[in-house]
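Need the bound structure for manganese (II) ion, inputs here:
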Amino acid sequence: MSILATLAKALANRSVRVVDLTHTLSPNFPAIVLQTELGQAAPFRVEEISRYDERGSGWYWNNFTCSEHTGTHFDAPVHWISGRYLPNNATDSIPVEDMMGPACVVDCSKESAENADFLLTKDFLLKWEAQHGQIPERSWVLMRTDWSKKVSDPVAYQNFDEEGQHTPGPSVDAMQFLVYERKVLGFGTETIGTDAGQGFHLRPPHPAHDLLHGAGRYGLQCLNNLDQLPPTGAFIFCAPLKIEQGSGSPLRVLGLVEG
Ligand code: MN
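Answer from helper R.:
Posting the output first, comments after.
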């Protein structure tokens, strides 16, 4: 049987399951908040066009507006100044082969529960590799924190205080390791950014954005259900909308899991 026929059969008999790694887009979903003097991302807004009524008796549909960085979303290299001049750096020019790949799920849920400012380090990744094997080239590394479980409480999800936002993320040496040594395609988080809430204080600031996008790699944020993926063996699909010169896009992220 061909590879694709084998996959189709496995999907039909549920020996391969599909896990939805996406949150529902709704006006209540927490939006990223920058310092007040900076431009801001719009939350998701929806406006009904008709609903089987005088505006259209046989059909229901909506207009919606949002930022490219609203809800579960994809970051393209052109999003960051380090990726500004790279070829094929936007949502309409990224190679489609990059919009999928094997997933390595690094469980930082215990550490993140104990410390909202937890930083995933290279040392933590090396310990993960000692247990699960080397992170393959062109894989997606997903940082599981269980932060997605806070999403119904926007205050807890954002976790701001007078110092700013406190959410877990990667360290500089972790991103250098993943991008340059393991040559991953992308890095994904359950929080509102690929970087830690206090990532501005690292050098370079926002190392996930700076290093990933400077090397033409990608980010995923506001992921859901990472606790339903195994550490290795899952395969994800994460195709952004084909927005002309888009810096990112909300998307549906799906994980295939065997067994
Ligand atoms: Mn983003």
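Comments: The helical segments are 3-12, 109-114, 122-132, 154-158, 172-181, 207-214. The first helix runs from residue 3 to 12.
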